[in-house]
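Chain A, query sequence.
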Amino acid sequence: MSQILGRWIADGAIDHTKLDASDSYTLQRLHVTGNAQVDGIMSYPGGWRTVSSAVDRSSFPDAFRVEGMALYQIDDNVIWQLIDGTNNANWVAMITSGGTQGQTGVQGQTGLIGQTGLVGQTGVQGYTGLRGYSPYYALGRPTVINLSDADTDLTGFSGGFSDGRYSYFVPNTNYGKIARVDPYDSSVRILNLTSTHADLRKFRGGFTDGRYGYCVPNGSDTSGRACRIDLSDFTTVMSLNMPASDSELYGFWGGFTDGAYGYYVPDRSTSGHIGRIDLGNFSTATVLDLALTDSSLKGFRGGFTDGKYGYYVPYNNGAAFGKFVRVDLTNFAAAGIGILNLTDYNANLKGFSGGFTDGSCAYLVPHTLDGTAYHGYFTRINLTDFTSVSYLNLANTDASLVGFEGGFTDGRYGYLVPNKGGSGCKLARVDLYDFTTVSVLNLFPYMIASTDASAFLTLGQTSRYWMGMTAAPNGDVYACVYGPGDIYKQTGGIENFLALGQGSQNWRGMAAAPNGNVYACVYGPGNIYKQAGGVGDFLTLGLTARYWHGMAAVFNGDVYACVENGDIYKQTIGVGDFLPLGQTSRLWSSMAAAPNGDVYACVQFGSIYARLLGSTSFSGGFIDDKYAYFVPANNGKVARILLKYGGGHL
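Chain A, predicted structure.
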């Protein structure tokens, strides 16, 4: 839009005659449906219109009004826009002749390219919006959309994108189910990609060209099978086996499009193979091996484009490295490769995970220096000269602002997505205007908040020495009786608990694993028993007899058991022996596992202990024109933050 305004606004005066028909596409960024023309009567709503007077503007037909459309009014030389409605009261003067410039306005719509999944960056930079409107909100309270409420499989995503109407969350560890969220009512629709091909299960990021959504094959998935989803029906899915074109085309993390091609970012520490797919037919893939230019150019995380170049974010090629790469998209060959070694500016400028551009600069998101030591060096590169580098160590603002994964911009601010390390759930927002001001928001309290204040009501079961309980993934609920006693099951969470006839023992603790296996332990000393898949008898695992007391199962399949006056034991992913964890001998009593992987154990007459395996974290984020979305990495809770007022709602 800024290029257009520059042609027809001069010395504070508007000359709409300088607006030509070639600008019609850009004018559609003013939340227009259908095509646009400069002048004339049109048979479809929205667009860019010209009227003679306020009377003509007030009498503009309702059938052609669309929130966000703009009118140029000749008699007062003013551009008017419909804001937050389509009534006459909703016309707002946006650009006038003379006077001083107002506040920064509505952020321009995303250009030709939508945000990428993992890093959420825009593609071709959106143009500046209309001036004098729409202040940004302070970084405030997020809302939470729990995708798991729609389907318990909807946990563990990596990246996402918006097509301007819906938000899409890319599956990583949730069985190939992509989730689509309606921002108006937070309703969720699910598409199981494995129904098209069994390999369409795990991805790292995605992007859109406006019509289709694309999911990037996961860095640990050797299938290399990319997929395309028709967003118009959210049903039609195509897949492409990229290794059929080149055996090294697998193991990606993030991607982007220039409108004609999709580019897939090589993540493996042994590969520099960029995959490029012709989006016109989604049937052919070509490759550019960066390592042929420089053998160290392997192991990137995330990428983006400014329209001319594709940029690749350095992560780990066997060790964290800092060679930032750009490729001329019109010369997809070795001759089109440019390299900027960021460690020449500071030894800590390496090990990034994701990045984005505001059109003039590139921003790289800090992650880790060596896989365990996380850093906060948020780095900016001037894309005009691809030489000027500056950086901001976020840890100087808050020591926990390290270890992010993915980022994006709304045009004014850069948002860094919390993932690992000390950042935990702390979102960092950086003012890109001064590259100094940092705002911090801890998302964690909002992710665990509960609104359930209802009382516990009796289920009217026979009075017994009830001791341990667990709930299986299929909805069955188990309870065991100490005393000695039996194990009881409430099928599907309905009706009475019925005895399973498992023998009269001192049953003490229970746990249900994600695969359906149900465990029960016996105090006595006794053993641990397992009911495979929630069916049949509980059979002994033949462990050393101990005073087993409490049990818990984590979402990744690990099962824990504690021993009174003993240790805590773990069975890794439900296989093999329960091995001691070397905990201090205590009167361990009960255990519980949280959805994010944290494991808790309590001590009789003592305290409660926690093993923090997976504090809530996110993997990538993106924006529509009103909200920022943070993609849940290990549960189903999406954090959504209001960005700014105005510009229409989607």
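Confidence is low (pLDDT under 50) at residues 1-45, 96-135, 450-454, 645-650. The longest strand covers residues 559-566.
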